[in-house]
Write a structure and sequence with these properties.
- 36% of the residues lie in helices and 15% in strands.
- The protein has 324 residues and is α+β, with helices and mostly antiparallel strands.
- The protein has a domain at 85-272: Transferase(Phosphotransferase), domain 1 (Orthogonal Bundle).
- The N and C termini lie close together (6 Å).
- Mean pLDDT is 87; it is low at 275-281 and 304-324.
Length: 324
Amino acid sequence: MERYEIVKDIGSGTSGVARLVRDKCTGEHFAVKFIERGNKINENVQEEIMNHRSLKHPSIVQFKEVLLTPTHLCIVMEYAAGGELYERICKAGRFSETEARFFFQQLISGVDYCHTMKVCHRDLKLENALLDDSTAPRVKICDFGSSESLLLHSWQKSTAGTPAYIAPEVLSEKQYDGAIADVWSCGVSLYVMIVGAYPFEDPKDPMNFRKTILRTLTVCYSIPGNVRVSVECRDLLAKIFVANPEKRITISEIKNHGWFLKNLPMEMWGGGSWESNDVNHPSQRIEEVQSIIQEARKPLKVPTVSRHIIGSSMAIDDAELNKW
């Protein structure tokens, strides 16, 4: 537990806080998600960890291990120093088709691998597509907090995801295929990269989520006249944005679409070098991971003390956490 030192906070969410840490021995940086022990370590957290652990692909943030502190369960993973793909689009306004295709090819490659490994993400969005800091940035899919195993749940029913990216069938409150819903979210990501806006938001009333949902259900979108988009790209978007999931283009069909295949990197033809990696045997044994999760579920014993002492105790805990 003492081999890492905290560098800074890098994000926060409903389930925990993400911090950048440095391995004192190697100097390597990692991202660590801190989740408070006790009630917050629920079935969703367990599935997030087990699903993420099973994945090893260059377009997915690499899971390293889970650890325990006296107060938190920690998920240690690869650090993508290039930030969010969403931030890159915000700075650029929108991408050219060539640049959008470059990132979309990587996104689809990662999602295809997830589905091959029987994991659907269920919250694919540009904020969950990180980048490394290389000259030609590599997409790194992250945040498997809403993911589900297709082996355990062949059909999903719970509504998961971000409103602007959610597929129509997810909003219907009926059973749906999470992998097919992921395809829709990929389409939204592609549209945003090329147009610089969300396809189903009303440009005049973007914060009206009810209107966004209605436009999603009716597949009401258009491409602005001032944005040049090729016929091939429009065709791909039209085949993704289909309300009936049974008629929507599949990941396999996307990979064979003419627009997708243009300038496709050699590593993505017929698989990739990652297929030779030992994907079924990550560095941390499954028995150890399960044991740590079970231990983290136990309620913390917090002594009853005065407000003044609680404040002091919390300060000490923070100091100890920073030492870790």
